[in-house]
Structures are given as structure tokens and as C-alpha cells.
Design goal:
- GO terms for molecular function: nucleic acid binding.
- InterPro entries: Integrase_cat-core, Integrase_p58-like_C, Retrovirus_Pol_polyprotein, RNaseH-like_sf, RNaseH_sf.
- This is Integrase catalytic domain-containing protein.
- It holds the Pfam family Integrase_p58_C.
- The strands form two sheets. A five-stranded antiparallel β-sheet has the order 6-5-4-3-7, with no helix packed on it. It has a two-stranded parallel ribbon with strand order 1-2.
- It is elongated, with a radius of gyration of 37 Å.
- It is α+β, with helices and mostly antiparallel strands and 330 residues long.
- It has ten helices and seven strands.
- It has three domains: 148 residues, Nucleotidyltransferase, domain 5; 53 residues, no CATH class; 70 residues, no CATH class.
- 39% of the residues lie in helices and 11% in strands.
Length: 330
């Protein structure tokens, strides 16, 4: 028996009952509904049917539950190829349309089959159906496994390793956040791990590997001291690109080796003069290479403006004007 980790299933009374009737009780991984995919998929489908039905029929949805379940049970499942009704009773469901068709064709009448004959035919039909179901399930599972393995990567955690766990927040169970670090206590199999949620190891829970990721501790970093604090609080000014661009060329301020003669200095200056632009401190752009990004027919992305303080707004305006003047943006 496969259930979730609810207290109604993990209580001592439930464990004793399973032991008495010799039932092996399995529990799903925490916050991993894929473990019990058939049940969770049915719940999602039934909720969607109820949501659609309530919007059109009103709020007395509980009166129409049998009709919704009937509609679900008569539709063939993609993996098995048969409807749930046919797998349970060995014959297709006789809905209103089927009964109307049998009435038109004159097939309705008193049954003449004995009970023994019916049971034998029922058993033969169920054996044939189950053989087809196993083949369809095997093919469907193989196809689903191929699609899943395309993005799956094998990961292994060691006992005692620090990890982060994706746990729903206390404010909203529909939102999850990485919490931790916690410690791996036991590796149950390839995908399930027992994680200690406290330092003493009294709160343990089984989590799927998709809900776990490794935790890396950061080394303590020492920041470089750029300036000594003064008597008056000052803000660190931003880099003034425009002032650097208006400064004299670096070639004029270059220091030439004093051991060179006057003729050698003049020859070096004449050699460097044609390449004066290379030694300039003004940021610019090259015309030797052009790179084009083809965005196709996609429209530009528009983002909402964010509010900033007056001081930051002045710095942003100054930087934009500097880059416009330098010609690096437009």
C-alpha cells in the first residue's frame, strides 16, 4: 500500500493494522507527488473537471459528482488503451447513447446467458484485456522513460553531506524556497534520502533527490580597504569617464628613458606619433570588426522603470550624458 506521509497513515494504529493484515506499507517522498503519480494525476484531472463544471453549473457541485466520475471512467486511458470501467467489469460501459443505439438496432432483450457461462466468458475476456494492458503499459512506460531521461542527470549525495532542501514556505504552501543547510543521514535508494532537519537528528524526513541540492560553504572573504575614513562622511564618487576622455593624451605624458640620446628620443617620438590614438585614455569603439545579432521578428522587451533616489538619479543621468558624448551608446 502506497500512501503519503500524512499522520493518518504514519500513526502507530495504522502501522499495527498493516502488520496484522500482512500489508507492506510504503510512503511517498515529502513534497514529491510524482511518487504516487496515478493518484495525483487523477486528483488533478478531477479538480479540473470540477472547476470547469462549477463555473457553468453553479455551486451545488457535490450533486453531480457521480456524473463526473462516470464520464471519467468511460474514457479510455492513453497508457492502458482501455477505460477504467472496462478493466473493472470486463465490458464497455453502457451509457445513455449506447442504450439508445441498442434500442434503435433492436438489440435490447432479456439475457439468455447462464451465470456459469457469463463467469467463464468474463474470465477469458479479462485475461485477454490484461495481456493487452501489460503490452500497452510497457510501451508507454518505455516512451515516457526516454523523454524523462533526456533531461535527467545522475546525482549522488554522501552520508553526512550538507544539503539544501526545497520546502514550501509557512506563509504559502504553494510557494517553496531552499532551506538549510541540513545533513544527509541515510541513503535509502538511488532517489530517496533521509535528511536531518535539526542538529540533534530528531526531526528526520525522507526527501526525493529532485528536492535536494548540494550546499557549499563560502570561504571568509577580506575586502580591500580603498580609503581611510575621514572626519566628514563622504560618498565614493563614480568613475568620471568624460573627465578621463578630456585629459591630455597619455603619449604626451609618457616618460622616455633618460639614457637615450636626443636623436634617439626624437626617433622614438616620430615612430609613436602615427599610433597616438592607441595610447589615448578616451574609451571608444573600433571600426575593424562589426558584430550583428539577428533577433528575427521579436519585439524589443519593455521593462517598467524602477524608482531610485535623487542622488543615484543624478549619477545615472551624468553617466548617460558621458556615454552619449563619447559615442559608445546611442
Amino acid at each position: 500500500m502506497l500512501t503519503d506521509q500524512g499522520p493518518q497513515f504514519t500513526s502507530d494504529l495504522m502501522q499495527s493494522l498493516c502488520q496484522k493484515v500482512q500489508v507492506e506499507h510504503l510512503v511517498t517522498s515529502a513534497y514529491h507527488p510524482q511518487t504516487n503519480g496515478l493518484c495525483e494525476r487523477f486528483n488533478g484531472t478531477l479538480k479540473q473537471m470540477l472547476r470547469t463544471f462549477v463555473e457553468s453549473q453553479g455551486r451545488d457541485w457535490e450533486r453531480y459528482l457521480p456524473h463526473l466520475l462516470f464520464a471519467y471512467r468511460e474514457v479510455p486511458q492513453e497508457s492502458t488503451g482501455f477505460s477504467p470501467f472496462e478493466l473493472l467489469y470486463g465490458q464497455r460501459v453502457r451509457g445513455p447513447l449506447a442504450l439508445m443505439r441498442e434500442g434503435w438496432e433492436g438489440k435490447l432483450g432479456s439475457p439468455k446467458t447462464s451465470v456459469v457461462e457469463y463467469v467463464l466468458k468474463f474470465r477469458e475476456r479479462m485475461q485477454a484485456i490484461m495481456g493487452e494492458v501489460y503490452d500497452n503499459l510497457k510501451a508507454a512506460q518505455s516512451k515516457q522513460k526516454q523523454w524523462y531521461d533526456r533531461g535527467a542527470r545522475e546525482r549522488v549525495f554522501e552520508v553526512g553531506q550538507k544539503v539544501l532542501v526545497l520546502i514550501p514556505t509557512r506563509q504559502n504552501k504553494l510557494q517553496a524556497a531552499w532551506e538549510g543547510p541540513f545533513t544527509i543521514l541515510q541513503r535509502m535508494n538511488d532517489v530517496n534520502y533521509v535528511v536531518a532537519l535539526d542538529e540533534r537528528g530528531k526531526r528526520n524526513k525522507v526527501y526525493h533527490i529532485n528536492m535536494i541540492k548540494a550546499y557549499y560553504e563560502r570561504d571568509p572573504a577580506v575586502l580591500t580597504v580603498c580609503s581611510l575614513p575621514g572626519d566628514e562622511p563622504e560618498t565614493d564618487p563614480l568613475l568620471d569617464l568624460l573627465a578621463a576622455a578630456r585629459a591630455p593624451d597619455d603619449l604626451d605624458a609618457a616618460q622616455i628613458n633618460a639614457d637615450l640620446s636626443e636623436s634617439q628620443r626624437g626617433q622614438l617620438s616620430r615612430t609613436l606619433a602615427p599610433y597616438r590614438s592607441i595610447f589615448m585614455g578616451k574609451p571608444g569603439r573600433t571600426s575593424l570588426v562589426a558584430h550583428h545579432v539577428d533577433t528575427g521578428d521579436h519585439h524589443p522587451l519593455r521593462q517598467a522603470a524602477c524608482r531610485v533616489s535623487l542622488e543615484v538619479k543624478a549619477d545615472i543621468r551624468r553617466e548617460i550624458e558621458e556615454m552619449l558624448t563619447l559615442g559608445v551608446i546611442r
